[in-house]
Amino acid sequence: MNNILRKLISRYYFSFPKNLVYMLQASEYDLGEFFAWYWRTNDFRTVSKRKSLVKTPKAMVLLILSWVILLSIYFSSLFFAIITAHIWYLIAGLVFGPVVLPYILVLVLLVMALLQIPLEFVIINKAKKRLLKNRALRIAVAGSYGKTTMREILKTVLTEGKKVATVPSNYNTPLGISKFILSLNGDEDILVFEMGEYYPGDIRKLCRLVNPDIGVITGVNEAHLKKFKSLENTAKTIFELADWLGGKPLYVNGEDLIVKNFLKNTSRNQEHYSFFSRNGLGKLVVSNAKTSLIGTSFDLTHGSENKVFSSRLLGLHQIGPLLVAIDVALKLGMTMEKVIAGVGKTKPFEHRMEPKTDSAGVVTIDDSYNGNPTGVKAVIDFLASIKGHRRLYVTPGLVEMGSRSEEIHREIGRELSNVGIEKVLLIRNSVTPYIYNGLIDSGYSGEVIWFDDALKAFASLPNMTVSGDVVVLQNDWPDQYV
Amino acid sequence: MKNIAVIFGGQSAEHEVSIITAHIPIIQSLEALGQFKVFPVYISKKGEWYCEEKFKEMSFFQEPDFEQQLLKFKKVNLSLNNHFKIIWPGITQKSENIDIVFPAMHGTNGEDGSLMGLLRFANVPFVGCDMASSAIAMDKAVTKQVLSAQNISVVPYVWFVKSQWEKNREKILDDIKKLNWPMFVKPVHLGSSIGISKVKNEQELLNAVEVALHYDNKVLVEESIEDLIEVTLPIIGNENPELGSVERPLNKTEFFDFKDKYLSAGKGQGVNAQYSQIPAEISQELSEKVKELGLQSYKGIGCSGIARIDFLINSKTGMVYVNEINTLPGSLYHHNWRKSGVSSVDLVKKLVVFAEQRFEEQKTLSFNFNSDILKKFKGAKG
């Protein structure tokens, strides 16, 4: 009873406006996502569990405006109550103020967006002009997954012989990329762009801005499936990069079955596509590939040369992307020695299959930024290759999988079971029961442990592990999905 | 689901350490295990008993005003009438019967056997050492007496109580002077190295005794082992105990004091997380000797459930001495067990099983003896 009452009055807490603005920001001002959260939530007191409001100018303006709106409602209702001598005006104002606040905020946001359009137009045009003068080679990376890792690999390897600039993470919209372009010195040899896709046409728009010389397509999967509706739409959007490049070189992930199927049913000319995989890329042939908790190594035959490469990245699936960087580097005239040194410097990027060993001797593989089915499969394949360790797999499942959610999560359960993961720690939510069903379907013999939320699971981990254990933290749900 | 009460805090110099042990790893692990309903029972420094859901989070006790917040809660009553029942008094009185108790008390008024005595009266199984072994281990001098009676080597020592010190100081000093300098002066009942000093001459000795008598009315003076290697060995189990890893604390200061033991521990790691070598880099031979003496001592004072045996090794002579026995190692020494392949969850699970086993065994003993002495008794006059 007490709790229900608290939920009802949680809109009237002092923190309510701040929490609204936080959630707008967390959902990247996507109104659909924001309202999905708003209508689902009934307790607004504990909203920002993982992160907190980042004080950007936009967020601060919204926060100040929300207080201005709220206070104006309160004062005008007080004013009416006084002049009409009806207390009901005041009560109505106090009660309904916070209720209407989110809708007024959204209207404000729409107005801000309208005002922003011409401003963005100016910035983007300025960036386009600046880029015309820039002589650097432009590499564009597109795909549903693996973009950041690809970008980091390219940067690390090519930096051995060239001056490379890359777009920082989460700057993958036209405005973000424009800001990046405007920050360049102009003396770069290579620019690497990570292209984000949310709606059909997005990649084409970015290509128009960047005009890439080389493209890399890392793959297609169910990421953002809710927005794209079908994998066909996702693939089409990502292949806007291929269409834009025309006859220019394009590297395509040859391990990706969705890409392969998509290309089978299309009339595209694929002559200039280079398919990469763990086995090789064009004339680069891989043999003797090995992976462990320390990293990955392989022999590479290039014409008459045979060299050993090693990287600190985990998993054989990393070899394909490494080959892309090796191929680009060699074609740009870098020596084999420099390329080997560059590959040797590649290491896991933050929260992406990043291993850490604690003082108790437990290896935690932080894969919390990996929330896509292809990445999950890669991690499970990697765990399968780890011998002599007890393995614990912690996950809240994946978000935005649309109609394919049940199938994907069941498959994850089946794979975990087939690989014989010793313990699976699941966070209670709408999708983890599918993982559980998948585990049960395939006769899982390990232990399943349930947690009410991810933070509780993380807190319990030190109590459940011993020296030598390998723990995978797979995906972390942002607050708007919790 | 069984109800388990974790009892911690208490009127002891190690009150705070007990709060840490209760949470890291006991409550956290019991919660992660998911097989018990956990009742965190906190005994305040004033000796008042509370039991609230909020106590499951250690952060509650880290709030600066937690003692004020405590006043909002109801003190609980206990019913010990052949059961252990927690009662929240009031108009809507609530009570919970506890199936098993997990004592997490360090030091006096808890680890010393007094709580165990109470729990035996309540006829409830409890984790860890029983009353007698707890009481023996709590007194460093008695521990040495019991161990040396079983030919387990201990460092030469002298002990005395406050009144003897006040009356026969000269005689005691004569006895002490038969030992070799430098020496350690220790209050016999305190753990966590509180009130312990190392002394090199008579003046330092007098000061140290004064400090020790401030904490305790019984004091132990013992020879210090030079070329010292300190190691410790955690042990769990009843009839067939399991050994943890021989651990060597790598202390920063001259000996392993309170600060090293607890305050330097890493965040969230519980006590004793750092400054340790596990397993200790000592010879195979020494390590075997430590394990053998460890088991003998564990059984020698009648431990069950869990304990930790501390050793002093003279690295020149290779002599191994048992120094003291701790019947509730801080944070259960879970960092050592983790390195030995036992996770904290498995550790608490095992300890609960050991507690239930011991309880079942004790039940088979007969405490009743049918006698007709009352019938034959003819009255006080005889």
Structure description:
The complex is a heterodimer of chains A (482) and B (382). With 482 residues, chain A is of the alpha/beta class. The longest helix of chain A has 47 residues, at 87-133. Chain A has helices at residues 2-9, 16-26, 31-40, 57-84, 87-133, 147-158, 174-182, 202-210, 225-228, 231-238, 240-245, 257-264, 319-331, 336-345, 373-385, 405-419, 432-441, 454-464; strands at 137-142, 164-166, 190-194, 214-217, 250-253, 273-277, 280-281, 284-291, 296-302, 305-311, 354-357, 363-367, 391-395, 423-427, 447-451, 470-474. Chain A folds into three domains: 2-117, no CATH class; 135-345, 3-Layer(aba) Sandwich (UDP-N-acetylmuramoyl-L-alanine:D-glutamate ligase); 354-481, Protein-Tyrosine Phosphatase, Chain A (Alpha-Beta Complex), CATH 3.90.190.20. Chain A starts with a helix and ends in an 8-residue tail after the last strand. Chain A is globular, with a radius of gyration of 25 Å. With 382 residues, chain B is of the alpha+beta class. Chain B folds into three domains: 2-127, 3-Layer(aba) Sandwich (Rossmann fold), CATH 3.40.50; 156-223, Dna Ligase, domain 1 (2-Layer Sandwich); 228-362, ATP-grasp fold, B domain (D-amino Acid Aminotransferase, Chain A, domain 1, 2-Layer Sandwich). Chain B has a four-stranded mixed beta sheet, with helices on both faces.
Brief summary of the model shown:
Chain A is an alpha/beta fold and 482 residues long.
Overall structural domain count of chain A:
3
Structural class of chain B: alpha+beta
Report strand % of chain B. Answer: 15-25%
Number of helices of chain A: 18
| Major sheet summary line of chain B | 4 strands, mixed
Whole-number mean pLDDT of chain A: 90
Given the C-alpha coordinates, what overall shape of chain A results?
A: globular
Please mark out the parts of chain B with pLDDT under 50 across 5 or more consecutive residues, or reply none: 252-256, 263-273
The CATH homology group name of the largest domain in chain A:
Mur-like, catalytic domain
Count of distinct strands of chain A = 16
CATH superfamily of the largest domain in chain B: ATP-grasp fold, B domain
Structural class of chain A: alpha/beta
CATH topology of the largest domain in chain B: D-amino Acid Aminotransferase, Chain A, domain 1
CATH arch. level architecture of the largest domain in chain A: 3-Layer(aba) Sandwich
Distance between the termini of chain B: 56 Å
Pfam families (chain A): Mur_ligase_C, Mur_ligase_M
Organism (chain A): Candidatus Doudnabacteria bacterium Gr01-1014_77
Protein name (chain A): UDP-N-acetylmuramoyl-tripeptide--D-alanyl-D-alanine ligase
Keywords (chain A): ATP-binding, Ligase, Membrane, Nucleotide-binding, Transmembrane, Transmembrane helix
